[in-house]
Amino acid sequence: MIPTLLGRERERDTLYELLVRPGGASVLLRGGFGSGKSGLLTDLGERARAAGFAVLSACCEPAAGHRPEGTPPRTMCSLVPDGGAEPATALVRWLAAGATAPPTDETLAAARSAPAQRVLVLVDDLQWADAASLRELRNIARAVGSHPVTVVCSMGPGESVDEPALGAVLRLLDHHVQLSPLDESTVARQGAGILGTSENNGAAAEVLSPLLTAAAGNQYLIRTLLAAVHGRLRGEDGQPDSTRSSALAAALKPLLADIGVVVRAALRRIGPDAERVAAVLASLGGAQPPELIAHAGAMDRHTVEDALHALAQAELLQHAGVRVRLHPPLLVAGLAQGVSPTCRKEHHARVARLLLSWGASAEQVAPHLVHGPTGMEGAPAVLRRAAQAALDRGAPDEAVIYLRRTLSEALDEQERNEVLTLIGAARLDSDVPAAVPELRSSLRLDAAPSALAHSARSLTGALFAMDRYGEALTMLEGTIQRLRAVDAQSALRLELDYLLVSLGEAASAVRTRPRLLELRLQDAEDAAGRRALAALLSFRGAALGEGADDVVAWARLGLSRGMAPMGDESIVYPCAALALGAAGRPDLTFEYADAAVAETQARASALPYAQALSTRANAHCRRGAFTDAQTDAKHALAVFREIGVDRRESHSVFTVATLAEVFIRQGQAQDAEALLDDSDLAGPLRFHTIYDYPLLVRGWVHAAQNRLERALADFLHLGERLTARGMPGPGLYPWRSEAALVHLLLGDRESALALADQELRLARAWGVAEMTAVALRGRALVVGGQEGLELLDEAALLIGGNPARFRHAQIQADRGTLAVRYGRPEDARAALQEAVSVAHDCGAEPIAAQARAGLRELGDRPRTPTFRGREALTPAQRQVAELAAQGMTNAEIAAHLFVGLRTVEMHLSKVYAKLNVSGRHGLEQALR
Fold this sequence. Notes:
The protein is mostly helical.
């Protein structure tokens, strides 16, 4: 049962309090269409009769002010007694006449002589009362207080036939009750109770939630929706949620037509042209200027403006500058459903032609072309321009609407290919799986080679993102064959993507390796081709361990237009950014990724944006900025999820691995393991290179939790995968050092030494300071003793000042620990303090804890979490520093703190060293 007064408990109570007030009351109840005015009057009448009141009611109609000549006036809009209340009726009629004539009939005499019965007069839709009724109501209202009468009038939107007479009545109504739209919490609370059990609420809420929002607090619309759902839920009880939800959705569709019928009837009462104007406005949708509404409906401009004024008075219109829109949305939908498709198309066609004649922009015309008929001159070009503009401002879904409408026009195959490719590109920014069929369709057409290559690269990116490597290889092979005979350079561009994707399968990786090795930069003839080829060569160099300087040079050339150049969707560019990290330049990786984040965010390209975030997160991680890495990685995963790329698929997998590494470095191995488990990375992994990194990270997780055999298995398996692809370089994944350390912990020093020596030989040949330092550390920990200490000294020299801060802290911690063990306390103390400070800056708590333990072995008792920066200051040092920064002299500070001058000087000396400033002038800035 749907309550008549949904959400109006407060107003209901207010009216009853006024009703029972001694001496009577005069009340005005105001509200818009569907706000519940009539329901409140009906409810008040019922409660009044129960309390012993005589109730008389009247409902005014718009026609009351427009009677034909000679028709007698209807007293008080046909005031009707509700039940046997003849004495009360006679009294009210006498009051309406002005109470000047003496009683002449027996009924009135009896009414005046009998004990007084309280009377309630209810008048609905006062705005439509005629002049005679308004005069009589004014007389009744004047009698309130001197006679046992209460008057309650409701008033909605609409123009009165006699504004002065209406104003005279309104001035006599002392109490005003305004009906505002229902708030969402009220609707949600009462709707839950109406819809019954919690089992059904979930299914109903899924369907109802957007509709209730569209009702915008209108009580009539909300009650209509709830009534329909309530009935459907009773019939669908016991069905599964999915079945029940579908049934509800189907049941609600006819409601729009029902709402439209009611709304049209109400509009006819507002004014003669209100219904027609509202229908045109609903057909056009959105906010429209009066001139377009008039042109669309082939109506006079003044007629439209008058009707819009009436709609505004009825609170069914919202203004947006010179434009107007109907409100609430559900009412608009109900009206629009009553407009025939032919009429709707004609409305939009008229507006589109008018806008084109004005020279309006494509974005202004396109929404009308979408709903207009096909075949309009110039429509494809306008729609495509509007789609591109939508893409440029980050509205891919809007662009898809325009492009799909373009496909309805007469296009040649080249144009159709271009439109389908644009749809696919737009889908990549909002729904990657949905982009695949569009891009496949574009490849079936007979288009220009460059257009086919563009479509194929976009499709490769989508398939690659979803781990569909086999499909990508098959598609690329076929497209390359099509292009090779007609455009060798376009075929070469696709071949670069093909070679990179081929690393995803063992057989294809072996088959294509010779071709990958024989590529040279001069094979590409144009600038775009050279950029893409250089990007692939940089990745090849990093994987093979070729010259690091060449890798950096190739990567710089490949990324000369950024990681995500417009119009070039190749998957090779992010690989070039990662190659820079392997070549010891994570700072450059960060620069390119940071620029790509800003660029792709500005143009709202979701897939490249998520890739750029992921790459930047990895660069942060490699540089030891773990907090920043965690922020970027989580954001990237959220964006991937929004566009349909699951965290178990390629691009997300790399991001997950980065986040898991961050957790490990921060000492949160359990969080890292849970993340890998949740991403299906705990079991066997696919062969593609994208899964090499998660395999390395999983080995670290096992090692951190002392599952040494499992850690060793992961590291060695990673080595087998890389060897099978012919990728021996240590730059991407230093698996040999990691496996060597686990071998050592398991007691197999011989195997550990063999792997450590091999890694160091490859790293020295690679020539990257970071990787050489990592390899030196691995061998140092295996051999130990004085030789190990010397190797760590060399590693510390190499890594000092390097962007890889975590590796720097790790090496210094190991160096300090070994120096303690072999009697070099001063070297140990310096190394351990450096390790604590750098690890603290990075957030690498396990390394900081190791270093602090080494300092305690030396007898030190660190009182601060770091040895440099503001956090390194003791409370006394900070107090002295702050006073010095305020301009106090040493003597003044000593007097202020009641300490000796020498103590102040000693504190300041340590403060300068910890803050790395040369004197007082740098303190204020350093302490911020």
